[in-house]
Amino acid sequence: MAKLVAVLATTHHPFFYKTSLLPAAEAPPFASAWVSKVEAYRATLTAVRPDVLVMVGSDHFHQLWLDNMPQFLVGKAPMYDANYYNEEREFGLPRLLLKGHEGLSAYILREGIDRDFDLAFSNELRVDHSITCPIFTLRPQNDLPIVPIYTNIFAPPLPRPERFVKLGQTLRELIDAWPSDLRVAVIGTGHLSLELGGPRQFGAHGPDPEFDARAVEWIANGDIDGCLANVTLDSLHAPGNATHGFMDFMLMMGVAGYAKADYFDNLDLFHTMEAYFTWYPNGVDV
Amino acid sequence: MSRYLVNKFLFTVDRDPDLVERYRSDPSGTVAWWESERANLLLSCTAGEASTWLEFTDAERQALVTHDHVALFEMGAHPFLTLTLWIAMFEADFDEPLGMQLDYAAKLAHFSLPYPDIST
């Protein structure tokens, strides 16, 4: 069977790439600490020598649109072009080409559908910064095949938080049972409290530091039940109008299971908190 | 209320560099052209298979023509779409980093939770 060598849940900050390339004289004061933390986080993936990456993110109204909006979508393609004009424009993100792992995509689709997730699929998917930010931070050599999984955290009606957790738990079961010799890492990105396009955007901290502190505790402790007891579709409006992206963290808690994170770090930035979690379900020496 | 169509305008303009500049410099002409020529195009179909029924309300048309992001927020336009396009059009008008984004937020300061519904 395949080995699930690591589960990583992280924020995806589209300005990291650009910030990390600035000369020291032009970089903001937080840049060096940010780069150091990301490099330390990257080592948690490198150490377990993955062969393939399952990557959970969310399309930001790029390819997926309101005339035909899937709730959960699995990419099944040999290649994925990545990043869009408006991400080059706003964030300075370059275009990328990623390899796909069609065999694992097909397996997740078949088995996922048979386990009550009517997964949408795409044979021609251009992924956006929710997938490429963790490539830049965690695997900048971009040398591994991926399976992208998109969730709808953006366009209501959304699936409820319980559904995200359940999908994560199902992915874990599927990967653990995948008949393959490959070493799999699952990387998912989301948000803590976040406001975009509203009155609380771009403050000195995330819009709800208290929520962020609780969220970090839930994730770091593997406290799925505590998180589900406190988080609903309605409650996520309060910490910030883009906080439904936290449900991708909840999906990753489902993948990780009821386990404390083996690695945790965070960084308070000007309008959001960065957070980095890694679990080694089969031990760091797997 | 045609929240979907307002979002479709923001979405299709934001992804096209020429349309971003055209909407910035000529909002009235761009909105009129778009409603006439583009509003009913199904994005995954050919032009001959366009929809036949989509149009803005007067208030929506006015909000788009006047670049009124406060009115768009009030109507439930998707805030991510509006913000992204506004950054593209107006960030260069401000000298300070994040100046545009903070001004944008300040103009929305009178809104409290719950914010206007954005469901479509």
Provide tags for this entry:
heterodimer; A: 286 residues; alpha/beta; Protocatechuate 4,5-dioxygenase, Chain B; 8-stranded mixed β-sheet; two-stranded antiparallel ribbon; B: 120 residues; mainly alpha; globular
Give a written overview of the molecule.
The complex is a heterodimer of chains A (286) and B (120). Chain A is an alpha/beta fold and 286 residues long. In chain A, the strands form 2 sheets. In chain A, strands 6-3-7-2-8-1-10-9 form an 8-stranded mixed β-sheet, with helices on both faces. Chain A has a two-stranded antiparallel sheet with strand order 4-5. Helix content of chain A is 34%, strand content 20%. Chain A has 9 helices and 10 strands. Chain A has a single domain (3-279), classed as Protocatechuate 4,5-dioxygenase, Chain B (3-Layer(aba) Sandwich), CATH 3.40.830. In chain A, a hairpin with a 4-residue loop joins strand 9 (263-268) and strand 10 (273-279). Chain A is globular. Chain B is mainly α and 120 residues long. The longest helix of chain B is centred in the N-terminal third of the chain and has 12 residues, at 3-14. Chain B has helices at residues 3-14, 17-25, 27-37, 58-65, 69-75, 79-90, 99-106. Chain B is built from 7 helices and no strands. Chain B has one domain. The interface between A and B is medium-sized, with 28 and 36 residues.
Summarize the structure in short:
The complex is a heterodimer of chains A (286) and B (120). By secondary structure, chain A is α/β, with parallel strands linked by helices.
